[in-house]
Amino acid sequence: MKSTSDSVPAVRLVNSPDGTSNFEIGRIPTLKQMNTTAFWISTTTEEWEKEVHTAPRKQYVVTLKGKIRFKVSNGSTFLIEPGIILLAEDVEGEGHSWKIEEGEQWERLYIPMTDNADDFFIQDSE
Question: What is the CATH topology of the domain spanning 7-123?
Answer without folding.
Answer: Jelly Rolls (2.60.120)
